[in-house]
Write a structure and sequence with these properties.
Length: 69
Amino acid sequence: MAWEDRTPFEAIEHLYGLNQHQLIELMRKELKRSSFELWRKRTTGRTTKHLKLRSPDISRGYCPTQYKR
């Protein structure tokens, strides 16, 4: 969920109890350094990763095509 660009930090906190700071520390620990740096570069300032920065028109935590059956 953290790797997905459209899943907000708040949704991850709601499901797993990890706030943004804890999630960043987890990703730093679990990913290779280069992968972590790419992820941080992508997520820093991204409006889709923060509910307060999102458009109020978006009410879901993921892309509708993310979970195909």
